[in-house]
Amino acid sequence: MATMRDFPVEYMRGRRNGVGRFRTLRATRLVVIAACGALVIAGCSPTSEPTTSENGSLPAATTATGTTASGSALNSIDPATFQAAVDAAAEELMIPGAVVQLRTPQGDFVAAVGTTELGADTPPAAQTHFRIASNTKTLTAALTVLLAQDGKLRFSDPVSTYVADVPNGENITIAQLLTMRSGLYNYTSSPELAATLDSDPAKAWTPQEVLDIAFSRPPNFPPGTSYEYNNTNYALLGLIAEKVGGRPLAEQFQERLLGPLGLNQTSLPAADDTAIPDSYSHGYMYGESAYALVDEPYPADMQAAARAGTLQPLDYTNQNPSYATAAGGAISTADNLATWIRALVSGEVLNPEYQQQWRDSLQPEDPDAPDGQQYGYGISYQRFGPNASMYYHGGELPGFNSFIGYDPDNGVALVIWANLTLSPEGKTTANALLPTVLDEIYAGMSLAPTPAPTPTR
């Protein structure tokens, strides 16, 4: 029997980008122990969990089609039980609103909890727009692979071929950017970025401005020698894609990825556009932007005030995410993201040769844990039980937290989003919901209490 205790995922709370953000993320670890051995799954989450709901009782709605499990790896999902599990976990985390979209061979299930706006009764749904933060990286990476498929770039090309003045640029390859192994300084770790986001939240950022922040500091390690989740890598990939593709990133996303798959609820806004299309969720976080961007832990008195309800979360809905564009600036819905992650993993986006290269790009984040979390071309992978594994990504920025994943062996697509970045005790909310959801989906798993996560940057 597998036991999920802690999910370490470095998800991207990077850039967490204020828009998608992703910066590395303070992850709560989910350690999975299978009958054949202990495996670690990465997931981004922070520290412990709260116990009260922001609005008292949270309204909830569940829809589902199908009730019969297709195989021994999956539970037979009861919609009411599924909804109740999500309700309880979201209430414990004090999340104002959340959606869990699940697609399995036995049917589609949506558990919606709470409200899209504090002080209002507007339940979220699978079609509610939200900022997907670092899940944008899956789009940026897929476009980069398509450009390689077109013969317009090679994964072995040095970054200096396309962008000037990158520290070690002649020794950093596009593949190393994609797999988070460039060694460059992560610009979302800089205190000046968080300070500017708080003092001028509407500021429109250019990729060069954020890269200037990164390039003003020495690299963290020589290229290719280590793994570090890093938004600078994907800011560079966005510039490279625009140069070799000959058009703005948003246009290429639409023509190459979103349009062909019918993802008409997904977009990459212009740098001066801080709006979210209707219908949308507001996004909330306790404290200033640094708590999301650099994984600063909440002080004890702040945690206590948030849990007691004397400290209310701030509304970050319209903070400009242009600082994160290619790394975390996109907007989407749970419905669109479930379609996207399935298509990406199933081979509907890339041709067979490049799909195999995309899969083969996965490398252990920790070389001493080869069976643990792996990161490749804009995607993570982990086996979390004898019959279950998932390709996935996460996204976090001030206001929102999300997870997208697809298990090709069992035909399971999963999207979780929450409109609170961090619980009062610092847990990244979508990742903190994940163990509960996986326990409902997969047979032979049982959840143990989640220990406090280890912050990662």
TrEMBL record:
List, as start-end ranges, the regions of compositional bias called Polar residues. Answer: 45-56
Entry keyword Hydrolase: yes
- What's a Gene Ontology MF term here? carboxypeptidase activity
Q: Which Pfam families match?
A: Beta-lactamase
Question: Domain of life, per the record?
Answer: Bacteria
Q: Where is this region: Disordered?
A: 45-64
Which parts of the sequence belong to the Beta-lactamase-related domain? 84-429
Q: Keywords for this entry?
A: Carboxypeptidase, Hydrolase, Protease
- Tell me the protein's name: D-alanyl-D-alanine carboxypeptidase
Q: Which organism is it from?
A: Rhodococcus koreensis
Organism classification = Bacteria, Bacillati, Actinomycetota, Actinomycetes, Mycobacteriales
